[in-house]
Amino acid sequence: MVSAIVSINMKKILPLIFLIISVDSFCQDQLSGKFCNSFNDGYSVVCIEFLENNSFKYELIGCLGVENFGKGEYQLTSNQIKLIFDEDSSKIQSSIKVENLKFRDRRDSIEIVFHIVEKANQKEPLPAMIFQESDSFEFEKVKQANSNGNLILLKPKNRETEKYNVLFLGYERFEFTLENHQSKNVTIELAPEAPEIISNRVFTIDLSKITPDLLVTIDGVEYKKNVEP
């Protein structure tokens, strides 16, 4: 009698043990490929590509291209994915170099001589646009460098500071501040527009469902495998 009860209980327990082992095995070994979620009426997509050795790549893609990018290591359990992003400071940043030109000062005015180039080995000149705070950054009052990337502004001589924005298509917007008490030679190297790098952060995604082709968060957001933006 006891043997029969044990046999019946084992028949019930064994499938449960097998299910637990199967889920754990899937979570640890079988999650691979690119899983994507489309939102914003299809104009934006988040993709997570799971690679070998528990590594991953993450992309947020908008209508203008990749907006956010990151990579790192992921940890997976039966109901959660933790994305641990690598520390990454590889993004190229715009820079500015300012040299005083006292010999170009006048009694009541100064000259600001701009030279704008791309931040690359070739240092190609850029006919970028310069917006000034004194013009309320209005587009109608924008000043533009010539084809050699050069522009000279004549400013009232005083002790005030002024903000500037430099814009050129395909390059990041660069903001800086200059003082108006002395003439200057200003060289700006503009970096190409690039996605924001997600660095040294942790994203936790709580899941209600995991299959080889589908991840569903507890909020009902679906990440489908091999859905390209």
Give a structural overview.
This protein is mainly beta and 229 residues long. It has two domains: 31-87 and 195-225, Lipocalin (Beta Barrel); 95-190, Sandwich (Immunoglobulin-like). Helices cover 12% and strands 48% of the residues. It has one helix and 17 strands. The chain has one helix spanning 2-29, and strands at 33-39, 44-50, 55-62, 65-76, 80-85, 95-100, 109-118, 129-132, 143-144, 150-156, 161-167, 174-179, 184-190, 196-197, 202-211, 214-217, 222-225. Strands 1-2-3-4-5-15-16-17 form an eight-stranded antiparallel beta barrel. A four-stranded mixed β-sheet has the order 6-13-7-10, with no helix packed on it. The longest helix is centred in the N-terminal third of the chain and has 28 residues, at 2-29.
Summarize the structure.
With 229 residues, the protein is mostly beta strands. It is 12% helix and 48% strand.
Quickly list its features.
229 residues; mainly beta; Immunoglobulin-like; 2 domains
CATH class of the largest domain: Mainly Beta
Classify the fold: give the CATH topology of the largest domain: Immunoglobulin-like
Mean pLDDT: 84
Q: Structural class, from secondary structure content?
A: mainly beta
Describe the secondary structure blueprint for this structure.
Blueprint: H1 2-29, E1 33-39, E2 44-50, E3 55-62, E4 65-76, E5 80-85, E6 95-100, E7 109-118, E8 129-132, E9 143-144, E10 150-156, E11 161-167, E12 174-179, E13 184-190, E14 196-197, E15 202-211, E16 214-217, E17 222-225
Parallel strand pairs: 4-14, 7-13
Antiparallel strand pairs: 1-2, 1-17, 2-3, 3-4, 4-5, 5-15, 6-13, 7-10, 8-9, 8-11, 11-12, 15-16, 16-17
